[in-house]
Amino acid sequence: MDDPAHPVLSSDDAHHLGRVLRLRAGEEVIVSDGVGHWARTRWTGDGGGGSGGGALGAERGCPGVTGVLAALADAPGPGGDGSVQFEEAPLPKLTVAFAPTKGERPEWVVQKLTELGIDRVVPLVSERSVVRWSGTRGQGAVERLRRVAREAAGQCRRVWLPEIAEVMRFEALVGLGAPGDVVLAQLSGDRLRESQLVVAVGPEGGWSADELASGLPTVGFGLSVLRAETAAVTAAALMVSLRTGTVAQMAPTAPVGESS
Length: 260
Fold this sequence. Notes:
By secondary structure, the chain is an alpha/beta fold. It is built from five helices and eleven strands; from the N terminus they run αβββββαβαββββαβα. The strands form two sheets. Strands 5, 6, 7, 8, 9, 10 and 11 form a seven-stranded parallel β-sheet that branches. Strands 1, 2, 3 and 4 form a four-stranded antiparallel β-sheet that branches.
């Protein structure tokens, strides 16, 4: 939504509100521009209801669905007067890079990373990658992931859209953060720390020996061997939880036999 103060729905959004969610006239809808601005509106359901939206119908490719979003005027709570609200972006910025696998699993990963609150998602090509996006095919795949992220952000009421970066090669990973920020997910790795802001998850075959010897630290997520997509979502959940304080960084413990 380009301007939350004057929301104009696309035909896809109209279909989602009218046919998938089956909203009734008068129900509230929160709209956002994806960069922190949001506003509360109501669904008219009939193509009327005043200014602030655009009527939708068969001419927009959505047969049988009409409706506009009209600004609220006197509802309780923030934004109840129709004003546009702003929410600061969460800091520090968190990134998950992952090597796409076959099928629809990359879309599932991006959906979950968006819901969890990751700020940047990077499709990664590593030495053992089976799926190698490049050229026109790669651009199409990235655009598809961006659509998935937008839909997921709407579903979870997220007002900051994550950045879905262009496909990146392993060698460029180090450029995603300051020294110590970037780490590799690996079964034998250390505990994830709050200061580690970029986690890269390898392909189904794991990192190559050369990649593990690149000098990037490794972090692990337990004793089990995780599927690539499970590791990406686990990394995201831990990173966001450390950022928000939902979980605390574990204090170092003294070796057995030593007293404090």
